[in-house]
Design goal:
Blueprint lengths: L1 E2 L1 H28 L3 H8 L15 H19 L4 H15 L2 H4 L11 H27 L1 E2 L6 H13 L6 H29 L1 H9 L13 H20 L5 H25 L11 H24 L5 H7 L24
Antiparallel strand pairs: 1-2
Helix pairs in contact: 1-3, 1-6, 3-4, 3-11, 4-6, 4-11, 7-13, 8-10, 8-12, 9-10, 10-11, 11-12
Keywords: Membrane, Transmembrane, Transmembrane helix
Length: 341
């Protein structure tokens, strides 16, 4: 399945619009803090970073920009980027949906002005609309490889040669193991958290609440963990069966594993958890090891899934066009060749 040129441009524009929305909020926070490192410290849980006004973004917003920029580039460069557009849409819808009710709660009014809340709510609606637009573009912009135009056949053939979409055998197994293990680690910590706090406080981790310290654009931590677990499992089993969507979806999950693992490692290094790992309680030891695993898994998955796939390229090379493409500058063969052509 390939995308028309118009669909590819549309998808890139939609991703650029999503990136600009998030970038605008990050830019607003950068002008609020004294220095850019202060914003990073806020993202990694170091209080309010001494900002004179409330900060609105989280590390996940920066990770979303990384996803949008890469998907926009992929859409412009490849005719087989439909699954990448869908992956960007899925993560956008999943992370922006809670904003519809979180931003309307009364307790959020104690953390942000009405003007900021209104702007954030409009941006949440815009992001959801753009996410749906990505799905519509990926579905409606499909083009059957080859069609009836020899030049389009040649473009589709070149697209498959340049950007295969299925992971190879070894990469599939590696992605299945790492994504499945990461999903298991995240799910295990959520189960542990549920047993520790329980009741309505744990429910706030999914719905948002006054017991959860959440920035204006933040996603409730339990909801975020559940989204990553589900996407990681879908990508893991997709990779096991060499599904087309496994590479872009796995790359999106890898970006978030890298980001959250890096944030955790930063916390561990800043508080000297790593240097005195043996002296920490068992829970804290497991937490630091989980962060290290998420960071390593994100790096390995990015390196593995970003590689050129094997099966699609081999399968496509095994197909031969119905005719040879002209090597010179002459016109293409007619749609219905006469006898003896």
């Amino acid at each position: 399945m390939t995308l028309t040129r118009g669909a590819r441009i549309t998808g890139a524009v939609l991703c650029a619009a999503l990136a600009l929305i998030v970038g605008g909020w990050i830019g607003r926070d950068l002008t609020t803090v004294d220095a850019p490192p202060d914003l990073w410290r806020y993202w990694t849980g170091n209080g309010s970073a001494g900002a004179p006004a409330p900060l609105t973004t989280s590390l996940e917003d920066l990770l979303l920009i990384v996803v949008y920029v890469n998907v926009a580039v992929a859409a412009l460069r490849s005719a087989v980027a439909a699954t990448a557009l869908v992956a960007a849409a899925v993560i956008t819808l999943a992370l922006r949906l809670p904003g519809l009710w979180v931003l309307s709660t009364s307790w959020m009014g104690l953390r942000a002005t009405d003007e900021l809340r209104t702007r954030a709510l409009y941006c949440a609606f815009a992001a959801l609309g753009l996410g749906l637009g990505l799905i519509i573009t990926a579905v409606a912009g499909r083009r059957t490889p080859g069609g009836h135009d020899p030049y389009l056949r040649h473009e589709a053939y070149a697209a498959h040669e340049l950007t295969p979409t299925r992971p190879g055998q070894g990469v599939s197994m590696l992605a299945f193991l790492l994504l499945g293990a990461a999903a298991g680690v995240l799910a295990a910590w959520e189960v542990y958290t549920a047993t520790e706090i329980g009741g309505s406080r744990y429910l706030d981790r999914f719905t948002g609440g006054d017991t959860v310290l959440l920035p204006l654009l933040g996603t409730p931590p339990g909801w975020l963990a559940a989204v990553i677990v589900v996407l990681a499992l879908v990508a893991a089993f997709g990779a096991l069966f060499h599904a087309v969507f496994s590479r872009p979806l796995g790359l999106v999950v890898a970006v978030f594993l890298l980001g959250t693992g890096g944030r955790g490692v930063d916390i561990a290094v800043r508080n000297e958890f790593v240097s005195r790992l043996g002296d920490l309680p068992v829970r804290d030891q497991l937490l630091v090891l989980s962060w290290l695993f998420e960071l390593a898994a994100g790096v390995v998955l990015l390196m593995a899934l970003a590689r050129r796939g094997e099966s699609d390229a081999e399968a496509w090379r095994g197909r031969r066009p119905a005719y040879d493409y002209p090597q010179g500058g002459g016109p293409p063969p007619p749609m219905s060749p006469p006898p003896g052509w």
